[in-house]
Design a protein that fits this description.
The complex is a heterodimer of chains A (309) and B (255). In chain A, 70% of the residues lie in helices and 10% in strands. The two termini of chain A are 27 Å apart. Chain A is built from eleven helices and four strands. In chain A, a hairpin with a 3-residue loop joins strand 1 and strand 2. Chain B is 38% helix and 27% strand. Chain B has nine helices and twelve strands. Chain B has a six-stranded mixed sheet, sandwiched between helices. The chains are: A alpha+beta (309), B alpha/beta (255). Chains A and B meet through helix 8 and helix 9 of A and strand 8, helix 3 and helix 5 of B.
Chain lengths: 309, 255
């Protein structure tokens, strides 16, 4: 109840603030009128205008290129009916942020998608690897051990290189021409090896008495695992899996090397095209927000699966 | 027809001999208490009956069905996993450390095996489970997780869970050793009731009072061997073996 009241009042305040901002948001015409005449009147070889309109605030950047070394740029930041010059300082940072935000968020989307899909695939794979590594059948156990040894023992960067550059040359049939798919394959295979060790540790941390009780009640191995042992590993698995998610989220920056437009790649290309280093700050901020959201979600899961403790 | 019969049961852990030629017959409805110093092999003997420990050699019959893999003349007889499980289901086991499933409520703990192993319909299994939980006096704890229960309550749930499989024999492996002294009574009471109903029971215990009062036979084990097998009044008043005498003296004096 208390939570509901707080949520509602926060919403109300947000609406109260955004409606007047929305109504007074400067239009393109407002910005054009603000440009100094000596800028609009001069002729340039190339000119471009970027107007990012976020409805409650906006920015406007006009660029004129006279020659390769002579570029003139005028930036504005608009909020609440005001148009503020954003050619330097904090206002410039704001205007830049608004300008870059769509492409950065596009990159972030790819990063998040890659992280979630590859860790989920990795977890799925790792259940079999973990059970295989505990198997009594020697060939299965050896295979799983070798798999885990290989993927934990070689750099993820090499594995990524191999899937993208190596496979098409060595096994032309296995050519993968989608950058996201290639990254997903390398990350899933790698993540599977790491998660397998987590899952194995979690299963082996379950009291031996649980296996004995299950056996005495007539449960087979599969039933024991599915009904009794694995459900008890959920809560113990959440901290290491949260760790894995966050690791992969940051490792996803490596996909820049195969030119997948993830958050890091977008950041570095903005940096190289504009020369603005402030983009790194924004990018790191986005990473932190994603990490915080993941952590929060895992704390929630830990509580949910830990009700019996 | 005997419920359990063993002949020359042996169990080695590497070069260590835990059980040495244990021969024993238990009839239907008997309550047998296994006593003896720690390390005597009482628990191992009990766990061998249930195949929680694989026996090294010897013969084992449950309800006159021989369960050990053996060589019969030319033929090697191997008992299939399923066949063995079926016979072993005639035995319910209660552990020293309860071993309840912590992620399930009391009711779910008792219901799980009948539903998953015996494929009994859920509604029917739940009805039986509720009755059993009531029988061990925990009707107000149906939907509580084991971690919220005292040791004595957990052990009673464990007994109900074993009974849910409708076993003909109950094996108790030191059921009260992990309990606070004031909680021992409630568990022993449940066991006494079971004995009164005619359940065949084998109890590894240090509760001499329980053995005296409830057991039909008391078996003294020492160093992997069965040294004495007699009704409680004989064994407690007039032990024949020197070891038994020494053991009982030390135990009864401290009590």
């Amino acid at each position: 109840m208390k939570k509901l009241i707080i949520t509602l009042s926060v919403l109300l305040i947000l609406v109260g603030i955004s409606v007047p901002l929305f109504l007074t948001n400067p239009t393109t015409a407002d910005y054009e009128a603000k440009l100094p005449t000596e800028f609009t009147d001069t002729l340039a070889k190339k000119e471009s205008v970027v107007h990012m309109d976020y409805k409650i605030m906006s920015c406007y950047i006009a660029t004129k290129q006279f020659s390769s070394s002579n570029v003139k740029q005028i930036s504005y930041f608009g909020i609440a009916g005001m148009i503020i010059s954003a050619d330097q300082g904090v206002m410039k940072f704001f205007a830049n942020t608004l300008t870059w935000l769509p492409s950065l968020l596009g990159g972030a989307e790819i990063t998040i998608l890659l992280t979630i899909t590859s860790v989920l695939a990795g977890i799925f794979l790792s259940i079999f690897l973990a059970l295989g590594k505990m198997s009594k059948v020697l060939p299965i156990r050896k295979f799983c051990e070798a798999y885990i040894f290989f993927f934990r023992g070689t750099p993820l960067l090499m594995q990524l290189y191999f899937v993208w550059f190596g496979l098409p040359v060595i096994f032309p049939a296995l050519t993968i021409d989608n950058r996201f798919l290639a990254a997903w394959i390398a990350f899933s295979l790698n993540s599977g090896a790491y998660c397998a060790e987590n899952i194995r540790a979690a299963i082996q941390s379950i009291d031996k008495g649980q296996f004995e009780a299950a056996k005495a009640l007539g449960f087979g191995y599969g039933q024991t695992m599915i009904k009794i042992i694995i459900p008890q590993t959920y809560r113990r698995l959440i901290p290491p899996l949260a760790n894995e998610f966050i690791m992969v989220l940051k490792d996803a920056a490596m996909t820049s090397i195969i030119a997948l437009r993830d958050l890091s790649k977008v950041t570095s290309s903005i940096m190289s095209s504009t020369g603005e280093v402030t983009v790194f700050i924004i990018s790191m901020g986005i990473y932190l927000i994603i990490t915080a959201a993941f952590s929060k979600f895992f704390v929630f899961l830990e509580k949910k699966f830990g009700i019996y403790e | 027809m005997s419920m359990i019969r063993t002949e020359d049961l042996c169990k080695d852990f590497g070069s260590l001999k835990i059980l040495k030629n244990c021969t024993l017959t238990i009839e239907k409805g008997e309550v047998v208490c296994l006593i003896g110093p720690s390390g005597a092999g009482k628990s191992t003997f009990l766990r061998s009956l249930n195949y929680l420990e694989k026996i090294t050699s010897g013969k084992l019959w449950i309800e006159d069905k021989q369960l050990d893999d053996r060589v019969d003349g030319e033929n090697k007889i191997k008992i299939s996993q399923q066949e063995r499980t079926e016979s072993l289901l005639e035995m319910g086991m209660v552990f020293q450390r309860f071993n309840l499933f912590p992620h399930l409520t009391v009711l779910q703990n008792v219901m799980l095996a009948p539903v998953e192993v015996k494929k009994i319909p859920k509604a029917k299994a739940e009805e039986t489970a509720r009755e059993l939980i009531k029988k061990v006096g925990l009707e107000d704890k149906m939907d509580v997780f084991p971690s919220k229960l005292s040791g004595g309550q957990q052990q009673r749930v464990a007994i109900a869970r074993a009974l849910a499989m409708q076993p003909k024999i109950m094996l108790f492996d030191e059921p009260t050793s992990a309990l606070d002294p004031e909680l021992v009574g409630e568990v022993l009471q449940v066991m006494k009731n079971l004995a009164a109903e005619g359940m065949t029971m084998i109890v590894v215990t240090h509760e001499m009072g329980f053995a005296k009062e409830v057991a039909d036979r008391v078996i003294f084990m020492y160093d992997g061997m069965i040294l004495e097998d007699a009704p409680p009044k004989d064994i407690f008043t007039n032990p024949k073996n020197e070891r038994t005498k020494a053991f009982l003296q030390s135990v009864l004096n401290t009590n």
